[in-house]
Amino acid sequence: MGQTNESRLARARREVSPRRLEKQMAIASASCTLFGREGYARASVDALAAEAGVSTRTLYNHFPGGKAQLFQTVVTWTSSEVRDAQLARLRAVLDPERPPRAEDLERDLVALARAFAGLMADHPNHFALVRHIHAEADHVPPEVLKAWHEAGPEPVARAVAEAMAHLAAAGLLDPHGDAALTAAHFMALTTHSIVETTHYGVRPLPAAETDRLIRGGVAAFLRAYGRGAVRPAG
């Protein structure tokens, strides 16, 4: 799953003095706000330092790699937070030791999609960062994109795929031999639909519209992957 933020912070406390760690966290926190507002390309080192209330020399002292290192630190930190929240909600809704009854599967998948979509309101700065990452992918250093994927999207995708495999083993889904693709389609039809429609939470939808999109997405997913669904040709 990767390191949790708690384990990452515990290691930092062992390796970095408390005063230095406190300053690094303050700079990263302030930078998260600026990056979420301006994006990667538009956020200058001078502006990042000013947002954190430090000199550019102090910023480079703590982050020798400058803006790229600072952005990677912020993205990894927020992605880990959201990843941990997603995995906790996944385990709470779809416990592999206690699969749902067939008649409750649709209800539980709707609950999972709602739980994932609700994270946009809980972590607005992170989703602002992700919105800018997608918009500026050609400007973001490749190592930063790689760190982001490894910290958040990849472990979550694996966990959802494992959940789909458990549902298949319980006789509740037919993943047609590809649990990872099944998971990707579930996310695309539900959570990703809400993310795109709201522009990563910038324009929240009325509750009734969110519910309509999630229920419709889950229904479409079950038509494709529920037991008894028609297997795609080819």
Protein described:
Helix content is 74%, strand content 0%. The model has no long low-confidence stretch (mean pLDDT 90). It has helices at 5-15, 18-42, 45-52, 56-62, 66-93, 105-117, 119-122, 124-135, 142-151, 153-169, 179-189, 191-197, 207-225. It has 234 residues and is mainly α.
Describe the structure concisely for a colleague:
By secondary structure, the protein is mainly α.
Can you tag this structure with a few keywords?
single chain; 234 residues; mainly alpha; Tetracycline Repressor, domain 2; elongated
What is the number of helical segments per DSSP (H or I, 4+ residues)? 13
Rg of Cα set: 20 Å
Major sheet: size, sense and barrel closure? none
Query: What is the element string, with H for helices and E for strands?
Result: HHHHHHHHHHHHH
How do the helices and strands line up, and which of them pair or pack?
Blueprint: H1 5-15, H2 18-42, H3 45-52, H4 56-62, H5 66-93, H6 105-117, H7 119-122, H8 124-135, H9 142-151, H10 153-169, H11 179-189, H12 191-197, H13 207-225
